[in-house]
Design a protein that fits this description.
The chain is an all-alpha fold. It has five helices and no strands. The protein has helices spanning 3-17, 37-47, 73-77, 99-109, 132-143. The longest helix is centred in the N-terminal third of the chain and has 15 residues, at 3-17. It is globular, with a radius of gyration of 16 Å. The two termini are 29 Å apart.
Length: 158
Amino acid sequence: MKPVQFAIAAFAAVFVVACGSDSSTTGMATKCDARSTFDQVQQQVFEAQGCTAAACHGGEPVAGGLDLRPENAYASLVNVAATSGDFVRVFPAEQDLSLLYQKVAAKTEGFELAPLGISGGAMPTGPGVLSEDDLGLLRAWIRGGAPENGIVAGSEQY
């Protein structure tokens, strides 16, 4: 294999891995068209959990003023003051100061938000929770600076 072919193959392998996995069945990578870690978060977390539905954060008006539809999600999340507590919705590099992370981690890990000064319930609403992989992806994206473009190191495993 020529060096250029090898580089392209290596990039393609990382890209597929960066699109997530379905550990509930085969553990193999699932089909995904994410071009960045944020796109992966959008598809694997927000869209898969129904957060972009009209009844949640995708209709008019959007719940809590948070619009998670693909065309608005990034601008609605990163460095935007939250309406609950002394948090921003996503504080780049700091998941503990990110309201989004706290709300979904509270549901997945089963802790209370009130002691943190956060009002409202854990997310997502209803009986579902984020998988450990989905929570890990969100954590990796935030810790990696919450960029809109590019692949965050460490996110490939989710």
